[in-house]
Specification:
The chain is mainly beta. The protein folds into two domains: about 5-125, Jelly Rolls, CATH 2.60.120.10; about 130-200, Sandwich (Jelly Rolls). It has strands spanning about 15, 20-25, 25-35, 45, 55-60, 65, 70-80, 85, 90-95, 100-105, 110, 115-125, 130-140, 145, 150-165, 165-170, 175, 185-200. The two termini are about 25 Å apart.
């Protein structure tokens, strides 16, 4: 991802289709965002090399392994029925829409998939950022707010994003940037992955 600070403006949308497709060890990768957090917990875009957190969507087309680089990872299977991995000798099965956080001191091994799989990948520097992923159901009766340091990806269904700048329709697997002052909120029917990033000293 280029260093595009406007891409992390509260209420803006990060379109998956616009993210450059590259290769990683097990398939294809689309980098959605990477950056840092300021003292107030607001997101700032940077290149991956300077970042303390990064968010991507990755496919798994084959068995293999990838280096964890001393980061804390959270994997959420968003397309496919099952993904098996081994981290530090512990075998773990990932089921759809169940975030799996882990830290591994050795490369993570993935088994041969029975089908093409996609997962949402959050990686953070644990000395600088706390990162979590929650899966929530959207409702037309109750708006879902996204605050500073939060990103929301629409995984299923339909949603409208509302903020101080107006309303926009959120496309499937696109991500919206949260913000307190912009009053970013979503309404609709579907499933949303909420990524929350907080400074470790907050």
């Amino acid at each position: 991802m280029s260093d595009n600070r406007a891409a992390l403006t509260a209420g803006s949308t990060l379109a998956l289709s616009s993210a450059k497709k590259t290769q990683w060890e097990l398939g294809e990768l689309r980098q959605l965002a990477s950056g840092t957090l300021d003292a107030d917990g607001k997101l700032h875009a940077t290149g991956v090399e300077q970042s303390s957190w990064e968010l991507s969507v990755r496919s798994v087309l084959r068995s293999g392994s990838f280096s964890t680089k001393s980061l804390r990872h959270t994997l959420t299977l968003i397309i496919g029925d099952f993904l098996q991995l081994s981290a530090d000798g512990t075998v773990q099965g990932l089921e759809p829409l169940r975030p799996y956080p882990f830290v591994s001191q050795t490369p993570v091994q993935f088994s041969q998939p029975a089908e093409e799989l996609l997962f949402l990948h959050l990686a953070v520097d644990p000395e600088r950022v706390r990162g979590t992923v929650r899966i929530i159901e959207l409702s037309k009766k109750r708006e879902q707010h996204l605050f500073d340091g939060q990103l929301g990806m629409l995984l299923q269904g339909q949603a409208v994003v509302m903020s101080e700048t107006g309303e926009t329709k959120l496309q499937l697997r696109d991500t919206v940037v949260g913000g307190d002052q912009a009053q970013v909120r979503l309404s609709g029917r579907g499933v949303l992955a909420v990524v929350s990033l907080d400074p470790v000293d907050a």
